[in-house]
Design brief:
The chain is an alpha+beta fold. The chain has 5 helices and 10 strands.
């Protein structure tokens, strides 16, 4: 019986596990961030309550920020800065920003003592046609994302538009590794091994 049990354990350990990641899609409220007004900056605070599970225990492997059907309000030059923030109040908050440049790199924001990481700077998003912009965090940005989550189980995204942008919604797509599940071949080995043990016990 020991030999049969050993074979089952070896089969389980050597068999491949399902490797595909799960994707969690988060959306702010309002989804279009009030169309990203020129004279405002925005923070979108995300925590374990927002996500629905413990962020610290979520093995995130990839983060993608998506702007759906975004257009500038006219054909004038424009900028959109996006930053990763250590923390911010839960949900979407708006602040006044009449100054040029990225608010999250100013001395006013530095005075808050909240760490930030620049994610992406879009320039001259066209007036027409609408486009979908997708930005994938690089390795350094992912490293800071882990650090920010560890420092309070939350993080935030900051947006500073230098023009007015229409869009149909913003998404943050987080890919993470779910608990490994044995593939069908592995389950078959387990079942076969269990049957062998059952038969041996009946014969004794």
């Amino acid at each position: 019986m020991k030999t049969g049990l050993t074979l089952i354990v070896l089969a389980i350990l050597s068999a491949p596990l399902a490797a595909s990641g799960a994707v969690m899609t988060l959306t702010p409220s309002p989804a279009d961030l009030n169309d990203l007004d020129h004279y405002s900056y925005y923070t979108w605070g995300i925590n374990s309550t927002t996500v629905g599970q413990d962020l610290l225990g979520l093995p995130i492997t990839k983060a993608v920020l998506v702007f759906k059907n975004i257009t500038n309000w006219d054909s004038s030059p424009n900028d959109l800065w996006v930053d990763l923030l250590d923390t911010a109040p839960t949900g979407v908050r708006t602040g006044a920003d009449a100054a040029a440049g990225d608010y999250f790199t100013t001395s006013a924001y530095a005075a808050t003592g909240i760490a930030h990481t620049s994610l992406v700077h879009y320039t001259n998003i066209p007036y027409y046609p609408a486009s979908t912009l997708s930005y994938t965090f690089n390795d350094a940005q992912m490293s800071n994302l882990y650090k920010y989550i560890a420092n309070g189980k939350d993080f935030a995204i900051g947006f500073d538009p230098e023009c007015h942008y229409y869009n149909s919604g913003v998404e943050l797509q987080l890919t993470y590794c779910p608990t490994p599940v044995p593939e069908p071949a592995t389950l078959g080995l387990i079942a076969a091994g269990s049957l062998v043990l059952f038969r041996r016990r009946k014969l004794k």
